Amino acid sequence: MLTLLGIAVIVAGFAIRLNPLLVIGAAAFVTGWAAGLPPLAILSAFGKAFNDNRYVSLLWLILPLVGLLERYGLQERARMLIARIRVVTVGRLLLLYFIIRQITASLGLTSLGGHPQMVRPLIAPMAEAAAEKELGVVPDNVRYRIRANAAAADNVALFFGEDIFLAISSILLIKGFLQQSGIIVQPFDLSVWAIPTAVLALFIHGTRVLLLDRRLKREAVRESSRQ
Amino acid sequence: MITLQFCYFVAGLAFASFAILSLLDRVNRKRFGNAAFWGLFAASFFFGSYLADWQNGVLVLTLIVLGGCNLLGHGKSETTAAEQRRESATRRGNWLFAPALLVPAIALSGTLLLKQARLGAMPLLDPKNITVISLVLGIVIALAVATVWLKPHPLAPLQEGRRLADMVGWAIVLPQMLASLGAIFALSVVGKAVGEIATRYLPLDKPFEAVVVYCAGMAMFTAIMGNAFAAFPVMTAAIGLPLIVHQFHGNPAIMAAIGMLSGFCGTLTTPMAANFNIVPAALLELPDRNAVIKAQLPTAALMLIGNVLLMEFLVYRF
């Protein structure tokens, strides 16, 4: 039971908005200490795990490319492209991206989206351009809400799309775990039963992004009347 | 053979260059902090495989102190003004999207086509890590193409990379740090303790109650751990298999598939899932670190309810 102290540290640390790195460091040591590990063993285990997980950070190699393209006007080009399409609104644009992201993820093409490579350079500026077209001047907090929703659309579409693909790691994990427990399921059975939830996600989140248009308009009006 | 080690070497070069450029950046008052942070991260990529575990531990601890105690500043990278960018965007047109789209294209075709490619007796890409390696190759090739086409100042890609890296700041190491915390949790069998609590104190007498507790437990435990993969074995061993499958004769495939997706509802709500929730807030320059989570909360709640109803409706029927 004492091992749960680490979880308490995390919850408390995030609640009082401490720097997450400090929270994680503290949680690791408290958890290890509660499990009876000597400090040096905790340090070694943490160092080994960090080293083994370096591949998680390889995606950051994209930063020089994204930065270079931004230098030559990638975000501006994304805005221009959207400004030309008349029927586009923030909600419709995010819905379209959601659908594309969900379908490609369900085909295993999870690397086609993502925050550093798609949302920051393309989707967020496009959504902002769509808002500018409709609302004129976009106040800062409305702009932030648009960006946050662009990131959210990417996440939700990915999470509730990827499990339809047979060879995604979560499907393989499920299969392996059930197999250990003496139950044989085929990846196909698992991915079929991910489809109802995927449809539900499209319905729920799709409705929400379409409703976003009205909300943004309301907020922009309120903001401009305040000034 | 191109291995993960090669990718780590490339990453080491990138972060080492950020460190050197930070050191030379006199505008940044905390430039030594930035230089030390990026330098240590580069060292981890270069030498991590050759260091002892405790030495890697000291390295991580130093990163935590540097990032956690606010010792990093924002450098001033030389970049273009808005007017120049608009002019360039008008002149170069939609071709600007090409290098960005080249990355997933190469990552994908590398994964699919180069699995069998060989150099003599050796495979060209290490088959164990083919997706990650293809992605890194995609980035390197796209960057090379963009550099040949745009002919920037030779240091420009690195300066621009440093501009974005400084913007994200310490959050860059957050996903990797959380993965490491997961390893400590596993070592200390935190999961089992959570499972015991769930089964001891919650009502589980009816099939519907088991579904509710399993799905909600997956979401909550995932929110705590930041990762549905950590929650799944625990909750499924504690509730899913003994109750839903064995006692109430539910379908294990449906239980597992929708159970995992209930966990993903938890992922949408937690700062522990840093690369999905915290990193984009930094990348998009949002003042509120939790803005992305707030945008996701209603969807997460509705999806969890939906998953409970779907499982209740399907798991005991097929």
Count of discrete alpha- or pi-helical segments spanning 4 or more residues of chain B: 14
Give, in spatial order, the strands making up the sheet with the most strands of chain B: 1-2
Q: Give the CA-CA distance, first to last residue of chain A.
A: 55 Å
Q: Helix and strand succession of chain A?
A: HHHHHHHHHHH
Q: Per the principal axes of the C-alpha atoms, what is the gross shape of chain B?
A: globular
Assembly category = heterodimer
Low-confidence stretches of chain A: none
Helical content of chain A, roughly?
A: over 70%
Extended strand count of chain B: 2
Question: What integer is the average pLDDT of chain B?
Answer: 90
Low-confidence stretches of chain B: none
Q: Alpha-carbon distance between the termini of chain B?
A: 48 Å
Question: What's the alpha carbon Rg of chain B, rounded to whole Å?
Answer: 24 Å
Q: Which secondary-structure class do the elements of chain A indicate? A: mainly alpha
Largest sheet of chain A: none
User: How many beta-strand runs of chain A?
Assistant: 0
| Mean pLDDT over all positions of chain A | 89
Proportion of strand residues of chain A: under 5%
Helix-strand blueprint:
The complex is a heterodimer of chains A (227) and B (318).
Chain A: H1 5-15, H2 20-34, H3 39-52, H4 62-71, H5 74-84, H6 90-106, H7 115-135, H8 140-162, H9 169-180, H10 187-192, H11 195-226
Chain B: H1 4-23, H2 31-47, H3 53-68, H4 82-92, H5 97-113, E1 118-119, E2 122-123, H6 130-150, H7 156-168, H8 174-187, H9 190-201, H10 207-225, H11 228-247, H12 252-267, H13 274-283, H14 291-315
Antiparallel strand pairs in B: 1-2
Helix pairs in contact in B: 1-2, 1-7, 2-3, 5-6, 9-11, 10-11, 10-12, 10-14, 11-12, 12-14
Describe the structure.
- The complex is a heterodimer of chains A (227) and B (318).
- With 227 residues, chain A is mostly helical.
- Helices cover 76% and strands 0% of the residues of chain A.
- Chain A starts with a helix and ends with a helix.
- The mean pLDDT of chain A is 89.
- Chain B is 73% helix and 1% strand.
- Chain B has 14 helices and two strands.
- Chain B has a two-stranded antiparallel ribbon with strand order 1-2.
- Chain B is globular and about 70 Å long.
- Chains A and B meet through helix 1, helix 2, helix 3, helix 4 and helix 5 of A and helix 1, helix 2, helix 3, helix 4 and helix 5 of B.
